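fyi for ur records
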Amino acid sequence: MENGERLLAQAALNRGVQLAEDTPAQIADAARLADEIGYSAEAAGLYAAALSYDPDNADLRNEAGAYLYDMAVEANRLSLATLRRIANMHPDVAILQAAFARALVTGQQMDEAEQTLENALELDGALPETHLVQGEWYAASERLSDAQREWRIAMSTDDAPAWVVERADRLLHPQ
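which gave:
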């Protein structure tokens, strides 16, 4: 490693160490910046870190959850690999497990999606994000009445983020 590369690597390492001391809001700010400059995988990782520190923060769940969900809907190889890595790093954070399950549904990896959803539901059975994705799993499995039931649950939960309510409503009432 040449001297210039070593300095860049050291700066990155220092920033990573500092990140561990940042608040979830500061980490979310870093995620927004990473996304603005085109580093979506890094943004996803930062959002995941913020959520792992403060999974009950409604504003953070709304912003970070929507970002990760949108990444999961794309489910290209990079986003699937990123969400798999995030889920493995944070096996105890239900919203991150749900995002990974959504990517698996998009990629038609239904058995693994089902297992991941079961894990997310065990972690937090009331999480509206998980019910949204559970409904999408049911829809992809051609179980539409079960899907509609899950989307209604997702929408009616008191702490459902706005993006969950909007997407569940769109799925229940396609135009």
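The radius of gyration is 17 Å. thats all i got for now
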